[in-house]
Amino acid sequence: MDQPAHPTSTAANRTAVELAVLDAPVLTRGVLTLFLLHLAEAGAFDPVWSDQIHADWARELQRRRPDIPMERLRHRRVEMDRAFPVANVIPSRDAQDEVLAHCTTQAERRSAHVLATALSARAAVIVTDGAFCLTEVMSKIWHDTAVLSPDAWCLELLDRHEAAVLDGGRAHRASLTHGDASADAWLALLRTPRVGLTATADRLSGDRYQL
Questions:
Q1: Which of 37, 67, 164, 174 is most buried, judging by how many CB atoms fall within 10 Å of its CB?
Q2: Best CATH choice for the domain 11-152 from the list 1.10.10.10, 3.40.50.620, 3.40.50.1010, 1.20.910.10
Q3: Span of 4-8, 14-18, 44-48, 103-107 with lowest mean pLDDT
Q4: Which residues of the chain form beta strands (DSSP E)?
Q5: What is the Cα–Cα distance from 26 to 205, expressed in whole angstroms?
Q6: How many whole angstroms separate alpha carbon 20 and alpha carbon 32?
């Protein structure tokens, strides 16, 4: 999987928007990861992660791509934290204990840190994939955090912050230096299974001349 370059953020200088935890599965997916980070850089949302989320995506990328040097993975993490200097959250002990108290399986205990990070950051959303296993745990805890796929999250952002999404989309498209650079080709890329933003691409297709 190609490693995305990361944009330089101006998040500290703009009005706060929704906080979204980006779980490890969406931080290992190249084009999707870069697309989400460009939306964040454009002001559509503020990303959140933690040291453990960093460790999870790095371990998964090592498993999938053992040819990627560890130094490259370390550089990727440094660049993410540099681009979004307030994104890395330390989950509180109270949040961790509360989540772990409701975990009944090993898989839930392994993923507890993701929900604890969201609770500690007061994030509106956890953006993750279908393997997320804490739905039952979340039903037992008072919270205002939703769990959404990347496609569903991008659709919500289009409803709330369309101009920022379009700005981020243009920046993402401009960052892709290989292949057909047309808007239609870029939308087709978003629809591919490895990116998984079919509904988002369909919605953006109406704005292709702004992309």
A1: 37
A2: 3.40.50.1010
A3: 4-8
A4: 19-22, 46-48, 125-127, 146-148
A5: 23
A6: 15
